[in-house]
Amino acid sequence: MPTLEAARFTRLEQRLSQAVAQRDLPALHTLLADDFELRDAANSSELVLRDEWLDLVSGGTASAACAPAEVMPRPFGDTAAVSLVCTAGAERYFLVDLWRRQGSEWRLAARYRSPAPPAAAETHTKH
Fold first, then answer.
1. For residues 5 and 71, what is the distance between their CA atoms, to the nearest angstrom?
2. Above pLDDT 90, what percent of the chain?
3. Which among 26, 30, 69, 71 is least buried, having the fewest CB atoms inside 10 angstroms?
4. What's the rounded Cα separation, in Å, for the pair 61 and 63?
């Protein structure tokens, strides 16, 4: 049975993914903290800040929206670390999102992304 936190953050991750897919900048402005940043394991020395990421989303060059799964939040007061797996087409990512409560709303402050191994069903081979 999912916890209240898991349900809350699953909804937030779904809203975020939907906003990216629809290039819904007003929704993204409400979901992202002003100091949002993205780090990708493929380019760990590069930091993508909020405005740059929003430009990438609006131009359609940001990573495709993904279907969030295996959402596992770990709340720490007004902050929560949320690990999840996202599938976008043939690509799978392991994400760690850091959400921060601002007033009554949760905002995404940071996202850390790395490639995820194939799903278990995809790794089984016939011998």
1. 10
2. 71
3. 26
4. 6
pTM (two decimals): 0.87
What distance in Å separates the CA atoms of residue 84 and residue 13, rounded to the nearest whole number? Answer: 9
Question: At 25, which amino acid appears?
Answer: L
What CA–CA distance (Å, rounded) separates 100 from 127? 48
Q: Which amino acid is at 124?
A: H
**C-alpha torsion sign, points 66, 28, 52, 108:** negative
Q: Under a CB-based contact definition with an 8 Å cutoff, are residues 74 and 81 in contact?
A: yes
| Nearest alpha carbon to residue 115 among 79, 81, 90 | 90
What confidence tens digit (pLDDT) does each residue in 71-113 have? 999 999 999 999 999 988 888 999 999 999 999 999 999 999 9
Angstrom distance (rounded) from CA 95 to CA 115:
9
